[in-house]
Automatic annotation (TrEMBL):
One of its GO terms (molecular function) is beta-ketoacyl-acyl-carrier-protein synthase III activity. This is Beta-ketoacyl-ACP synthase 3. InterPro entries: ACP_syn_III_C (IPR013747), ACP_syn_III_N (IPR013751), Thiolase-like (IPR016039). Residues 109-186 form the Beta-ketoacyl-[acyl-carrier-protein] synthase III N-terminal domain. NCBIfam families: PRK09352.1. It is an enzyme of class 2 (transferase). CDD domains: KAS_III (cd00830). It comes from the Bacteria. It comes from Roseibium litorale. Its EC number is 2.3.1.180. Keywords: Acyltransferase, Transferase. Pfam families: ACP_syn_III, ACP_syn_III_C. Residues 225-314 form the Beta-ketoacyl-[acyl-carrier-protein] synthase III C-terminal domain.
Amino acid sequence: MASLRFISTGVCRPNKAITNEDIACNINTRIDPDWVERTLGIRQRYVAENHVQTSDLAAAAIADLLDRAKVDAGTVDLLLLATCSPDKRAPATACLVQHKAGLANAVAFDISAVCSGFLYALSVAAAMLHTGSYRRAIVVGADMFSRVTDWQRRDCVFFGDGAGAVLLEAGGLGTNALFDAELYTDSCGRDAFSIDGSDSPFNMDGAAVFQAASNAVPACIDQLLKRNSLSADSVDIVIPHQPSHNLLREIARRAGIGFEKFQLSMGRHANTVGATIPIALHDALEAGRLSHGDCVLFAAAGAGFTAGAAIHYWN
């Protein structure tokens, strides 16, 4: 358990947007655009140009964040990148982001937990800041799943490219900026979603993913709330990873949290994997949905099978 302050957020959205209608008309005539939006909640997704790399998206999100925060890049001493679409096998893509974003003083490394990656990275950053060894951290989620999508398959509608970043500091004594996380891994679900090679399209068992996530995420939420003597009614807003609206509705039902409390951003972005939660958080702030003292619940599920939840009193 740590005390944490979110100072600022930033995002990067690629220039090219592909709608469900674009896919139906130009790529795959078997796609029903209305079904995609009704069931998944997705209207469009952003796709990066061929020359763009994951590190470019991450660095752009950080630049947006630093500009909004009016913070000198030299004061950031920790950089965590959540991604499962790295630029290359070595070095860590976070090192490339450090260079491109001008974060010369930041210790930098990658965290890979697919769609749970940002939540895992956020938990690691909170723990490292809590030790006092680091003063200011950036956690950035960036992924480009357009590169591992077979655009002739029906499941091409799920993913988009993007990046989102948050700037964090330790909360300090008396701030009441509690941060606590409950993380979970069950390798029995390791085959539900996989990518065999850097040029191979993803393979997904949608039913298995739905079942695993709808069980694991509410269980993590329940454990987390009980540990902190909170009820589902204590939660003011949920910032979730967003695989589909149907799955989020099921998680909301099982967790006993009103679906109206969920920040939904996948209509515009689709599933941006490690970037989904920070983009949703940024959108919630832009929409004025967060106030001082609000109990914020983060939740995610990803391949592996990984899952988790975290709470934070907005400060």
